[in-house]
Amino acid sequence: MKFLSSCANSFSIISESPDDTFAAGRALGESLYPGLLILLKGELGMGKTRFTQGIGRAVGYDRVKSPTFVIMNEYDAKVPLLHVDLYRLEDEDEIESLGIDEYLDDGFAAAVEWAERWRERPEERLEVEFLPVPGDAEARTIVFEAFGKREAELLVKMKDKILPGEDK
Question: Thinking of the domain 2-162, which architecture would CATH place it in?
Answer without folding.
Answer: 3-Layer(aba) Sandwich (3.40)
